[in-house]
Amino acid sequence: MEQLQVSKRTIQNEFVYLKKVADLNGYMIRVSYGKGYFLEVFNQDKFNHFLEQMTVGEAITNKEQLISEILSCLLSTSQNYVTTSQLADLLGISRSSLSTEMETVSNYLGSYSLQLERKSHYGVRIIGDSKDIRRLMLDLYLKGDKPFKEIVDQCAGNFDEYERLVEDYIRLNQIRIGYYEFQMLIGWLKVFVLFSKRRVTVSKLMHQTSGLIDYEINQEQLEQVLLCLQEQFEISVTTVDVAEFRAFIQSNFQKKGQIENRRELKSFKQDLIAFFTEMDLRNHTDYSQDKEFLEQITTHLSFLLDRIDQKIIYKNPLLLELCIRYPLVFDIVLKFSSFLQVKFGYEISNDELGFIAVHFLNHTEKEKNKRINQYERIAVICTTGGGVSNLIRTQILGIFPNANVKAFSFWEEVDLKEFQPNLVFSVVPLKQAPNVPTIYIKELLSNRDIKNIRQVLCNQKIEQRKSAPIDVSHDYLELLKPTLFSVETAKNYDELIKKMALKMITQGYGDDGFQKNVDQRERYMSTVYNHGIAMPHPIEMKGRKSAIAVAVVKPELNVGTHKVRLVFMVCLAKDDFHYYSGISNGLFQLMQDESKISDIYNTSELQNIGEFYNEVSHR
Question: Over the stretch 85-121, which tens digit does the pLDDT of each residue have?
């Protein structure tokens, strides 16, 4: 304990953890009576990997957690001061370790205009305005800090009644509010309960604010919630509390219809239409023709720019998933953000870009449905008219539920012509194919075959009066190329992906601007994601041929607060864009499976990656 400068409790806690994970990580902790504990390693590879994970980044995370736990103790105490001995015992660390962290705590509090007051023979406490302390408490709660969240939720108890009161208010006053804003409001009320019960942590109160902006929102009804809390929890609600609550509501709620009086929507909308028209010409998209999309994005952006003017920022819990699973759409949104910055002078945060991306995704899904629904009469041509043709017809109906799908034998050419299909599926070569899109298929379609058909028809614009066959027999597993697989030792992530991009160009996959576009995408927003996975790709996808380059980085590379272990660089030709969703969804599922990541990383074989993708494609 003296050597490590930690308390006995800390040693005990760490020992429990090390014993618990021992078997999974290739070692055992044994005891020799009269001598003490010793380590027995039975799987050197697993043990070495376990040691590799104990990095500086992990120590930083532990330090951040310790700071949060110190703040939790100080914010939730019912005493005026907390002694350092009490804090050390509560946290399970030595007084010397606690002392070294208190300066960091003090600096962190300073960012909230708060102070850490130290008083001899008494201890320490947080002092500052009530609104600043509640702001800190709310941030800790919404961040999901486990110790503090448990304290707040336990103090607040069952909050269903108060959530219902807030929902009634929102409905009656036609308030525009998202789920995240709603959680912020409920979080504020829960934190208010804890704060009011522990009001001793505050040494000075803010004076009541005057001259608040009136948005014509009837707040009296919502303020009844505070009175209910006062009665239920036996706490006092001051005029200062009411004023702060009003300000919080005004900064987070928008009333429907309010926007028209704030911004010249017509001019604003015309600027957006001009951008989308130009983008549609370059990318063969239809954003400028979607009136519903234009209305929704205009309204969303008007509220967003107003929020930015008021310095109100929202966090987006879906940001990471949106970036990974929908890279093509998110890349368009990143370009859109550059337009907003140049045209209107607003720099949009990544979290807010995630909210914007949802509108783009909605448009994309509508376009997919439109492409599927355009096929009203579908012919399935088989070797016979028996059970196999009925099976294929049923499977095709699963893709086109609103279409008239009819099966024909290969010799029923006259009947086929009279049916006038606008899409044909055939298991045999056609001598006189109708002038419509034709897809050649196997007699027994697997789930992967059906998925490939759906992706091709949903994601590609296909000429309707053309009889050229459409190939759906390939899938993205074929894009994993042995010549693009490598184990790399790298000191810099940017240099690594430049090297990989150049290799894709020299092997005939990437276009001349591929390396530059990969670098530009990285400058917009990092493509290093969770659990050591990275997916670099160009901001403009226009490859000569399609491929996925894979690099296993050993030792793993630190990039900011993330580590890089496996790099998947994607290059797609225009006709293969439909593969993107399968590739990105596969990587997203891989990120949820740390043991599989470790298997791939440790074996460093392309075959293991292919096997994982094969498994995912059959789910």
Answer: 888 887 777 777 788 788 888 888 888 889 999 888 8
**Phi and psi at residue 527, in whole multiples of 5°?**
-100, 20
**How crowded is the C-beta side of 356, counted as CA atoms within 13 Å?**
24
The dihedral of CA 143, 149, 152, 154: what is its sign? Answer: positive
In angstroms and rounded to an integer, the radius of gyration of the C-alpha atoms of the chain is 30
* CA–CA gap between residue 189 and residue 167 (Å, rounded): 14
Residue-wise pLDDT tens digits, 287-304: 999 999 999 899 888 888
DSSP annotation string for 578-605? GGHHHHHHHHHHHHT-HHHHHHHHHH--
Three-state secondary structure call for residue 374: coil
Instruction: Supply 518's token pair.
Output: 């990969």
Contact at 8 Å (CB) between 403 and 424? no
pLDDT tens-digit readout, 444-459: 888 878 888 888 888 6
Element (H, E) at 381: strand 377-382
Contact 357, 330 (CB under 8 A): yes
Short-list 381, 301, 380, CA closest to 343: 301
Is 438 in contact with 467 (CB distance < 8 Å)?
A: yes
What gap in Å lies between CA 492 and CA 461, rounded to an integer?
Answer: 40
Terminal CA-CA length for the chain: 51
Contacts 24+ apart (CB under 8 A), 306-315: 306/254, 306/259, 306/262, 306/263, 308/346, 308/348, 310/251, 312/251, 312/252, 313/349, 313/351, 313/352, 314/178, 314/180, 314/181, 314/351, 314/352, 314/355, 315/142, 315/180, 315/351
- Residue 19 structure tokens: 């014993």
**CB neighbours (10 Å) of residue 542?**
15
Residue 355 CA to residue 213 CA, distance in Å, equals 27
Sorted by where each starts, the structural domains of the chain and their CATH numbers stand as: 8-54 (no CATH), 63-255 (no CATH), 260-371 (1.10.1790.10), 374-470 (3.40.50.2300), 476-617 (3.40.930.10)
